[in-house]
Amino acid sequence: MAPTIYLPMDAMREIKIAVSRAVKANKLAVPAVSEADLFSHPLDIRLIDLEQVDGNTTLREQILIVALAKRRDAQKVFEFGTFDGKTSANLAANLGPEAEILTIDLEAAQAGATRMSIGKKDLRFVRKDQIGAKLGSFSGVVQLFGDTGRFDFSPWYRTRDLVFVDACHEYQYVRNDTEIAFKLLQPSGLLIWHDYGTWVGVTRALNEFYVLDPRFRALRHIAGTAICFLEVGLDHPEEPPPVCRVL
Ligand SMILES: C[S@@+](CC[C@H](N)C(=O)[O-])C[C@H]1O[C@@H](n2cnc3c(N)ncnc32)[C@H](O)[C@@H]1O
What we know:
Rossmann fold, 32% helix, alpha/beta, binds S-adenosylmethionine
């Protein structure tokens, strides 16, 4: 039998292999927390409706997004991916009259002119009759239109205390939108992503951010949902290197 030869591997190569294994197996590298870990008190939340169509977050996820926003007393919000406006409307209904919620979506007519390519599955959500159909009576919500890969977000840099990333699910877009989300955030704030574990591009991007990028050390997945969140600017206890969790 041929002898086994062990080649030296540097730490970065080991981490890259860990990430690619995790993604190939569609494993979730981001540590999970339960709702009970996050909320010990009864939640006081108003919901605009209970309808859930393909493309929306689930009822449980809506409650958790609003609860996370209320826990941080978020007032300045940016949502990536308006869709029918349900999440923005629910945030407006819960964050008080002073809250300002900006939400951006891509008009169907612009779908062929995006900076990066958008897959068929995402195009189903882009092609709709109206963006933000559920936003009618919410004056605190401002709709913006454009491709998150091209839009000029700079007027709102460092102004937001919550950014919700839920637009195109392609890996390159999730990376792009996440970097912009960091720029939009004040020194302290909350980032939330949807579709972790359900869309490959989102899962891969967040797995990689968590394993490779120290800014994401406190990233957490809420068990039983597709939500990940990161509280930026808070002191988090020291943690072991994430690569241990992936392997
Ligand atoms: C899953 S839906 C968002 C759901 C919504 N956030 C909610 O909570 O109900 C994704 C949205 O992202 C939009 N979108 C896709 N690619 C985009 C892009 N490049 N720029 C802006 N919006 C995009 C789609 O038009 C679609 O409305």
